[in-house]
Amino acid sequence: MTTKNDSIAEVKDKECLIEVNNLEKHYGDIHALDGINTKIYKGEVVVIIGPSGSGKSTFLRSLNLLELPTGGEIIFEGVNMLDKSVDINKHRQKMGMVFQHFNLFPHMTIMRNITVAPIKLLGLSKEEAEKRAIELLGKVGLADRANSFPAQLSGGQKQRIAIVRALCMQPDVMLFDEPTSALDPEMVGEVLEVMKSLACAGMTMAVVTHEMGFAREVADRVIFMADGKILEIGTPDEIFTAPKTDKAKQFLASVLK
Amino acid sequence: MNFAMMSGFDEWFSKFKDRFINDFITDNRWKYLWNGLGVTMKITLGALVLGILLGFLVAAIRSTHDKTGKLRVLNVICRIYLTVIRGTPVVVQLLITYFVILAPLGINEIVVAICAFGINSGAYVAEIVRAGIMSIDNGQFEAGRSLGFNYAQTMYIIILPQAFKNILPALCNEFIVLLKETSVAGYVALQDLTKGGDIIRGRTFDAFLPLIAVALIYLVIVMILTRLVSILERKLRNSDH
Q1: Which of B147, B151, B157, B160 to mutate to test the interface with A (most CBs of A within 10 A)?
Q2: pTM of the prediction?
Q3: What ipTM, to 2 d.p.?
Q4: Residue among A93, A107, A151 whose CB faces B148 most closely
């Protein structure tokens, strides 16, 4: 686990997990991603911040091709995912994703929500998958809810289950798309706690969030985006205490007030 | 006075009894209704199965096209199918299927009717199922794909079970319509329930009782069907709060 005090030079010695080169996304006339270049290293936590409409969610969702980029390349574990011959479903199994609106499957129990993918996609037996699920549920403090349905849970509980569902596939990286934005304020903490412990356990994470406290405390690197471009990349200290661009200064002034 | 009323009722009742016997008992005429009901049920169930198969197939093609832009040619074929079937009366479709397409081949009338009503029903089922698929939040689809399920698995495991629950009332309605629409099967020389009642009317020159009996039988079947579906709906709701 790297800490936030590691310099970028040190981070660069690490194994690169995702490399993004010249990523482009056009929606009709809108240029949502404008030449994104960055790398995400194994075991690091990258937090992506920026004003709304800056393309940060589009960028995150491009990493597992929920948004299909219109140009550039995404190299994940040595494979360019935009290659036509690549089986994207295989690679998505290695990239867990957590959504703003949880997107639990309402017609399945919590246990089934968590185990359906490992059973059908990884070929785990029901017993193996449930053993994995119970262990993970214990870690997020929801072992007693295995037989509930999503509608019986609070927002914070749902999001913790969504994290467990992604983790049960044992992914190499976790993508979080504004995981706390749809939560009541008193439930934000419990979800961030789970994310923090995940970071401490060495999980590679890319997080789009408005929780600046989380970014400061947990991120190894912070990416600031605006207008579909990456304007700044740096340690939390560099970004939060000494932003270089006017847009970053403006944005931080408005959110840190 | 009282006596006169009584005798009036007696007279009416004994006339009614005669008509009833003449309509249903003499020459075992009730068998026209019974056998007709059998034909109606065969056509309805056969058309139901065919309609659901066709409907789900067309809905799958159409929503795959809507979501991914693939299957363009198939989508065009499906749209032509929907336009033609929904734009023409079912009786005309039945007559065309019978006299133009299948009768020259000497195919059994019941099979002809099953094909005609099944193809007709499939068009309506297709649009109901497609609406059901579209009613599911896209986040469900994305969650499935992000776990690594392919398009078909996501549909089958995540989207369709939820969609099915939403469209159950509309599907039930379609089945009720189908059952009643088969009453025009008499046009192609099939002796279904309606035709059975009509045959009795032709024999006894009494329209009232045979046709009321036919109407009651349809009504009872529809009521049973509605009841079964509401039980099924409640079961599905219980499994998901």
Answers
A1: B147
A2: 0.83
A3: 0.89
A4: A93
